[in-house]
Hints:
Largest sheet: 2 strands, antiparallel
Strand order of the largest sheet: 1-2
Helix content: 55-70%
Distance between the termini: 60 Å
Bound molecules: arginine
Low-confidence stretches: none
Strand content: under 5%
Number of strands: 6
Shape: elongated
Amino acid sequence: MKKLWGGRFQKTAEEWVDDFGASIHFDKQLVEEDIEGSLAHVTMLGKCGILTNEETEQIKAGLQTLLEKAKKNELEFSVQYEDIHLNIEKQLIDLIGPVGGKLHTGRSRNDQVATDVHLHLRNQVIEILDAIKSLQAALVKQAEQHVETIIPGYTHLQRAQPVSFAHHLLAYFWMLERDYQRMQESYKRINISPLGAGALAGTTFPIDREYTAELLGFDSVYNNSLDAVSDRDYILEFLSNSSILMMHLSRFCEELILWSSSEFNFVEIDDTFATGSSIMPQKKNPDMAELIRGKTGRVYGALFGLLTVMKGTPLAYNKDFQEDKEGMFDVVKTVKGSLQIFAGMIDTLKVKTEVLEKTVKADFSNATELADYLATKGMPFREAHEVVGKLVLTCIQKGIYLLGLTIDEYKQASELFEEDIYEVLQPKTVVARRNSLGGTGFEQVNIALNKAKEALGN
Ligand code: ARG
């Protein structure tokens, strides 16, 4: 079978070699972007007088027919034509005759593939931005219900200080807000047109790159043709932003997994986002959370894969770059799916407020409060820390918590203690009093909730 580029060849590769080199198996996903790019290119060729009006109109009509078929999933691709670009060109020629062969005037597959991917990623990033917002909205909705629900706050996974559950949820809201900003900010580096860079050096035809950029809705054009065909930074940036986003989701997954265990028992994941065991009838597994945590690994893998593909490649285009697509497609699918599942999981999450109420009373996470109490009354904090440390030790030895000590025991430890400590030690008081800017105090959490809603545009 003769190749579209077969002129200088005397022999043809065997089918299995062609198969190894082909990208049609996966770049067929770019079919619509490929045709849209070609439509802009041929429109420009007509406008610049490089093709006649008649040729231009014939090619455009042919491409429109192919686009409609593509949208209906009616196009069939063949590995013989290697990639989406040559498959479409072949079908165009079959459809409208030899004039179809004029489409590729002043263009190379190198600027063509780059154009397709820029168009594709631009659209996917817009969808991902929407999905981030939906998850943020689900977090705000839950947070609104749980400003006064108190959970243990941890450092080193040891109980540290109690916090508002809304405060904990909003921590993830702000991580996602940064993810959103990063994705949005990267958009301007995705939305640049490489079209017209040719194979690497530009072209002898009097093309108008700014015109094709405008037709395709790009904000600008690459300034350098070598850079245009060999830049994959924008994909790396997308993979990197996706990796950070997935890392955030993965951390949250870990918490949901811990919290839904009998050891913690803070939340229940809805039946619709959990699964059973084929052998142990009692089990309800947080599979979706575990899967998202697991999928984070493959997203990192795609980032490191492409970084490694790129590192030793000379200017300009190299076939290695064909390896940029599968990881990117996979990450788009993974990130979109994970965000969607996560939003559903948060939306339906049941918070076990009765359990939490008991839980936060059964620990020493109010100890800092006691030290602050003494410090407020003038005792140097370091000394107060020591006094309270000893009281904690007494409690541990007696098998009780700080609220269980008598006022006499407190007075013995320090004359500064008064009856009001029993109020001070209540988890609600402990949380409420952390009213510094950005803290967990209820007042602050309500302010933060409003800020979050503002960020969401509500
Ligand atoms: N399938 C190729 C890719 O994905 C398209 C560009 C091919 N260019 C070339 N000179 N072989 O990168």
